[in-house]
Amino acid sequence: MTVSLLRRADVIALLEGQDRHPRKALGQNFVVDPGTIRRIVRLAGIEPGDRVLEIGPGLGSLTLGLLEAGAAVTAIEKDPGLADTLRGTIAVRAPGLSADVITDDALSVDLAEVTRHGEWSLVANLPYNVATQLVIRALDDAPNIESMMVMVQREVADRLVAGGGATATGIPSILIAMSETARLVGTIGPEVFFPRPRVVSALVALRRHDHDVFAGADRQLARQLVRTSFGQRRKTLRRSLGLDFEVFGQAGILPTARPQELTMDDWRRLTMAAST
Question: Which residues touch 151 (CB under 8 Å, ≥6 apart)?
Answer without folding.
Answer: 40, 124, 125, 126, 188, 201, 202, 203, 204
